[in-house]
Amino acid sequence: MDVTPSPFLEPGHRTQAGSLAIVSLARDDFDAIRLEQSSGAVDGYAEGATLNTRFGSFPHSTLLDIPWGSQVRASAVDTGSRGRKRRLETTDDDTPVVSQDEGGKAPAKKATVASSGFIYILRPSPELWTSSLPHRTQVVYTPDYSYILQRIRARPGTRIIEAGAGSGSFSHASARAVYNGYPKDETDTKGKVFSFEFNEDRFHKMAEEIESHSLTGIVQIQHRDVYRDGFMVDGKSPDATAIFLDLPAPWKALQHLSRRIGSSPLDPKQTVHICTFSPCIEQVSRTVTELRTLGWTDVDMVEISQRRLNVVRERVGVNLPNERGNSQTPADVLEAVTKLRKVNQQNKQFQKSQIAQNKGTAAEPMDIDSSAAASETAPAPGKLPADDDHDKPWMQGRLTHRSESDLKTHTSYLVFAVLPPEWTEEDEEKALAKWPCGQESKIIGNVDKQARKKEKREQLASRTKKRKTKGEPLDSQTKRQKTDNDTPAESESAPATE
User: Fold this and answer.
1) Basic and acidic residues: which segments have biased composition (predicted)?
2) pLDDT value at position 246?
3) Which residues contact 461 (CB under 8 A, 6 or more apart)?
């Protein structure tokens, strides 16, 4: 069957009409838009569909058929009758007619570049979608879900159960992690995410987003109370090997995650990894107790704290201008000594002027601003006056990094556990056939001492015979081993003498 590839999985190299795009407005300001191809005026804009931001207006025609990551300049749009659309106008004979902008079919006007303002057009990704999506619930951010997917062994072909879809942040990230192609039919087993949501409004909104993002074949969402109805899909087992529970009471849903024959949503032949997402330690305690009761092993808890490092150039020195961000302290000892020399020279000139004034004689005029002028003309330490690159302020100073003072993330605890596969009698028989425990013939314990000595003599005799045939002399180690093995036999066969 024909499937439209998702922009999150196969975005292509250039933007196109009808696809999702992420607009970068600032460092942490992203906006998701659906690109449209307009043939005429839209909402009063003669250029067609237009994105309005604080940096200017951007008609969609300037955002189409360009490489992802391109910088797009703002346009000077013609608003036309925007604001008056669908408003009835009154003619001389008081006959109401539709606005010209609504009834006209004039082609879209070509956009002209504005004097300032720009944005970046980025291809959709789970990280950017998490930063731009409308928050309907608490969002699982990138530091959390990247670690979760690694711990639950999510890879192409994995089938994941997700309970508590919420805003869909983890759904998009897990869909990319398990994607290994769209299924051709119902019998084609591919990587898939089985998502469950209890809130009806969030379920419908999430279903619309999945269909709009062309993730229908990868993500299957259902409206269900998993505490009561479990995780079976259309009466069949999803054969999941990874589980993520973002629920208020995850311990109530663990009873359905077992290996019961005929009604288990887990893969019976593989190890299953689980992660629960809980904001309170009381929830963690009850979840851990239930996991251990049901036979889950390797239970541990992790808390992730994200802190961003800001890299800046630190400009330090008394010769730098008094600008914001500069530290007016000596950069090194040499600069401090040079500053002291200038201060001493100024003091001597001031004293000479005072003495000359008291005696009534003319003195050399004192240059009060000589230090300031020298500081403006003198190059900073390590700066070459003839090099234009060193005149750039962003190239001056040494690189330093500082971490943010506060954590810009939420506090939640991640509980991980592992459920090994069940060991059946059939598996036991296969293992015994491959590794016959207790039936080994050539191990210490199954052969008596005399038999081992006899076998060793035969090995040495065959080795000695081969060397004699080749005419090679016996080495000392072979002779010593032969003597050691022959001595006990001779002592046992020889009669005892007094």
Assistant:
1) 470-485
2) 93
3) none
